[in-house]
Amino acid sequence: MQQMVIANALRDGLVVFLTANGRWVNAIADGAVASDTDRAQRLADIALEAEQRCQVIGPELIEIELKDGLRQPVHIREAIRANGPIVRGHPGESGEGHGT
Amino acid sequence: MYRYDEFDQDLVNERVEQFRRQVARRLNGELNEDQFKPLRLMNGLYLQLHAYMLRINVPYGCLSSRQLRTLAHIARVYDKGFGHFTTRQNLQFNWVKLEDIPDVLAALAEVEMHCIQSSGNCIRNITSDQYAGRAKDELEDPRVFCEIIRQWYTLHPEFAYLPRKFKIAVTGSPNDRAAVQVHDIGLRMHLNSSGEPGFEVIVGGGQGRTPHIGKTIRDWLPEEHLLSYLEAILRVYNLYGRRDNIYKARIKILVNHLGIKEFRRQVAEEWEYIKDGALHIPDEEFARINAYFAPPAYERLDDLGQELNGLRETTDEFDAWMQSNVAEHKVAGYAIVNLSLKGPDRPPGDLTADQMDAVADLADRYSFGELRVNHRQNLVFVDVKQSELKELWGKLKALGLATANIGYASDMICCPGLDYCALANARSIPIAEQITERFEDLKHLHAIGDLTINISGCVNACGHHHVGNIGILGVDKKGEEYYQFTLGGSSNQNASLGDRTGPGFSADDAAGAVETIVNTYLNVRHNGEPFLDTYRRVGMAPFKEALYGTD
Amino acid sequence: MALIRNGALARDSFKNAAGRSELPDHGAVLVGLDQWREHRDPLLRRGERIGLLLLSDQHPEAIAADVHYFDLIALEFPGFRDGRAYSYARLLRERFKFTGELRAVGDVLLEQLHYMHRVGFNSFDLDSRQPLEEWKTAAGEFSVWYQPTADGRATATELRHWRNNQLRASAI
């Protein structure tokens, strides 16, 4: 099982992923992937500390998979969270999507 | 409409500065998320799936063109260029940054707007009839009472930490356009036997996971006692509402647990102490507030009977729009115009910044610079000259705001759903899109007639699915989106909760199920019988059979 | 913890004996509702000041007839979200005419001081590094009030009508 840590950044609220060196990035492709529970736990510990330092809100481990060579959260909620709203013709949606 | 004086303005300005300090305390780590959350919620700030969401109060749905232009400005500068109107007649922005919020609030304060108590376990934005002050069937203008109540609940020190959120709605008309029976408190004006206006007080209505139609706690309450009676209800609720379980904390649970008789007794006992005290509303206060809602400078006009009919005959589309989107005005020569935010190219209730500016201009040109938001997520111009209807229609059409569907199948209530909302289990907007496509043909849409379809993406029921003639509830079934249907719900004066049809449908089949329900109705309806009446007459059986077959 | 009373740092002279089996031999003492009920006479015979601690599920109606015996009533906020004591405070002040020290204890957030002050609390048990500074900021955040409460401050409505009457008078 492959896992990543997802959260919202405190300042702008945008979705962020945790990297291996403890930074937070908007693109899922740049985040760290843990392929065993020990690594996942280490990521979760870093994330919790970041939450206590008021960098991010509500970090959680999510399960991901590869789809057409791209990382995708398994659960639809997290997939929407990572990719942005799937809304046809939504004004303002172009150009500023994140997590892709 | 109501205008702030220096007292109202000072309070809102002070609130902006207070929240500025709170945000600073959050950003520098003095407040953790657990402590900050109730504070931000009481300023309408949520954290959603993708970003912060800011909910701005539109008090009882009344908005000026000047305010709408500020909203357009905020949408452009601080958001992604659009806003979303909600069932509490409010406006939500979906992409605001925490560090920008104090500036956004300051911009709002300049046009007498704020986000105070638009969320949190407190008394929320009061809602009312979008036709208030203009409807032919109205006894008295409910906005006067709404404003008096609004001031009373704003930063009420006793009721800032209630067991749960609290919603109040007011109607001045026997025909309920404000869904008062599904509110924590609903106020419905009527005349007593001596012909004096007063309020029937309804308590314990609500939707969410345990929907209830409210119960009448008092048949007729004199207007002057409105605030003391509300305070008595709120105090009993604050003291005895459950705090151990968030799902059982609304007042409806308390009312049901005690029974309406006992609840009424407790409120009456509390009220006895306070009814003639400082909350008694003096005549001069009614007069002061009333003056703000004086009618605009109407011209002396006659109703355009024949002339308008002639115009309608020239264009089918205009005729259809007149039929569904235009309502009677109490003043001769004027009409009420609904702007549909349920077009084919946008999520229900959304408006872009450019459209906001354009609508503000039209409000200035055609409707004394004011507009309303209704709880079905549309906008309303309440003072349009009948002679200018055709011209206005053309301009609205160019903006994509003249879809002739008000009150019809494609005029859906739809929550943001899983596309935005952190609480949702399933998406709502794509279902609305699919339903819109199925009912694109105007003739067909009009032949179906009055039909409310309400969609919620989870059991919290922001999309009012329990009271939709057709209600659609999104659920998560082992990681897949499913949609359960209810039939026969209504939030009008004879409110009812919908009945479950049976097993749910997948996202691909949901719109088809709506079509099956509608076709069944068309087959069994009597001439001119609306969907709700047909359902109440024939019951679930034919619909169930059409949806699931006979086995 | 720091105690703010009537807008100034104060020393808590009450010994907290709430829930304890023994009462101190002398000095002002804070007791719970059960203790008050059980030891009412001995407590009164001590001739010392008495404080009463009410928990958030203890309605002050229970001591409505006794309020004049207490120099202090402390209302507990077990969590900052539990808002019952806001109503209790108003009832104590407005209905039961308690005039002594009304203290907010437990989970008391700075952001709530304004509300607490308005419903009748005049002392606060604060977990704060700069209690006096922060109290001043929090208590001074608003200058406008719509609701009549026991704090006696004029509401916006009262001020409006007062002003209008002044204008009318000066016009004559």
Which key terms come to mind for this protein?
heterotrimer; A: 100 residues; alpha+beta; 5-stranded antiparallel sheet; C: 172 residues; alpha/beta; TIM Barrel; 8-stranded mixed sheet; 8 strands; globular
What's the layout of helices and strands?
The complex is a heterotrimer of chains A (100), B (551) and C (172).
Chain A (H helix, E strand, L loop, with lengths): L1 E8 L5 E4 L5 E2 L11 H16 L3 E12 L2 E4 L2 H8 L17
Chain B lengths: L5 H22 L5 H9 L3 E3 L4 E5 L5 E3 H14 L3 E4 L5 E6 L4 H10 L16 E2 L13 H12 L14 E4 L13 E7 L5 E7 L11 E8 L3 H15 L10 H8 L1 H15 L8 H10 L13 H9 L1 H10 E3 L5 E6 L10 E3 H14 L3 E4 L5 E7 L3 H10 L14 E2 L14 H10 L3 H7 L4 E4 L13 E8 L2 E8 L11 E2 L4 E2 L3 H15 L6 H8 L2 H8 L3
Parallel strand pairs in B: 6-7, 7-8, 16-17, 17-18
Antiparallel strand pairs in B: 1-2, 2-5, 3-14, 4-5, 4-13, 8-9, 9-10, 11-12, 12-15, 14-15, 18-19, 19-20, 19-21
Chain C lengths: L1 E4 L2 E3 L4 E2 L12 E4 H14 L3 E5 L17 E6 L6 H12 L5 E6 L6 H7 L3 E4 L4 H9 L16 H16 L1
Parallel strand pairs in C: 3-4, 4-5, 5-6, 6-7, 7-8
Antiparallel strand pairs in C: 1-2, 1-8
Instruction: Give the chain pair forming the largest contact, with residue counts.
Output: B-C, 39 and 36 residues
Number of helices of chain C: 5
> Roughly how many Å apart are the termini of chain B?
59 Å
* Uncertain spans of chain C: none
Helix content of chain B: 25-40%
- Report the CATH C-level class of the largest domain in chain C: Alpha Beta
CATH architecture of the largest domain in chain B: 2-Layer Sandwich
> Tell me about the biggest sheet of chain B?
6 strands, mixed
Instruction: Detail the poorly predicted runs of chain B.
Output: none
Integer tally of domains of chain B = 4
CATH topology of the largest domain in chain C, by name, is TIM Barrel
Please state the structural category of chain B. alpha+beta
CATH architecture term of the largest domain in chain C? Alpha-Beta Barrel
